[in-house]
Amino acid sequence: MTEPRPMSAVVEGLPTKSAKIKALIAEGYLRTDVARFLSINYQHVRKVLEDAGIRDGLQIGASPDAPKPRRDRERMEVQLLVDAGFIRLGLWTSIEGRIQLETAAPRIPGVYAFVIAGQVIYRSGHSTQKTSSRINLQIIEELAAGRVVEIYLATPEPAEWNGLPVNMAAGLEEGLIQKFRPPWNVRSATG
Fold first, then answer.
1. What is the mean pLDDT of residues 122-130?
2. Of 29-33, 51-55, 89-93, 167-171, where does mean pLDDT reach its minimum?
3. What is each CA distance from 31 to 3, 15, 63, 70, 126, in whole angstroms?
4. Helix crossing, 42-51 with 17-27: angle to 10°?
5. Are 120 and 77 in contact (CB under 8 A)?
6. Is 78-189 a CATH 3.40.1440.40 domain?
7. Residue 150: what pLDDT?
């Protein structure tokens, strides 16, 4: 199996972002990688592919012999989080196309991890932060496909450094995103 051509070579001479998106996907690149390379959001990539009738999978349009999608991130298994002290909070559920947690989340700052089939796919922080519409759509798609989306939570205690407050939850979230680059974290594409 051959490696995919460099992204810059794939898009060379293509006049529009839509053409570039389609060419990169056909080459076998992941949607998140395409968004990062073109400096656009994931939803833009998704819309172009949907408008083109490309609805299934992450590398639709590629021939059966096309290279596998590139994975530049280290996979993060949920057991690593559990061993570090994360607890299983519950599941996302969908009722009439709207998602909700099966249990109430605590109202204290924390780091949330969304997990599918034992793999961390998204990290979020702070109890007051709402899940974005992009993530809502992805959760709905996963639930509609019959997959279970679990939520794990860590609530590290605040700390001090030289008498100054340190938000341990924010630091933990950022560190995990930078190291593991979960697929649904948009900023993981730029880290």
1. 62
2. 51-55
3. 17, 19, 16, 11, 27
4. 90
5. yes
6. yes
7. 94
Domain chopping of the chain, boundaries: 1-71, 78-189
Q: Is the CB of residue 147 less than 8 Å from the CB of residue 91?
A: no
CATH 1.10.10 at 1-71, yes or no: yes
What residues does 97 pair with on adjacent strands? none
- C-alpha 96/C-alpha 37 separation (Å) is 36
Q: What is the tens place of the pLDDT at every residue in 90-116?
A: 999 988 878 888 888 888 888 999 999
CA distances from residue 32 to 35, 61, 66, 70 in whole angstroms, order as listed: 5, 16, 18, 10
State both tokens at 128: 């007051």
- The average pLDDT across 56-75 equals 46
Residue with token string 């992941």: 30
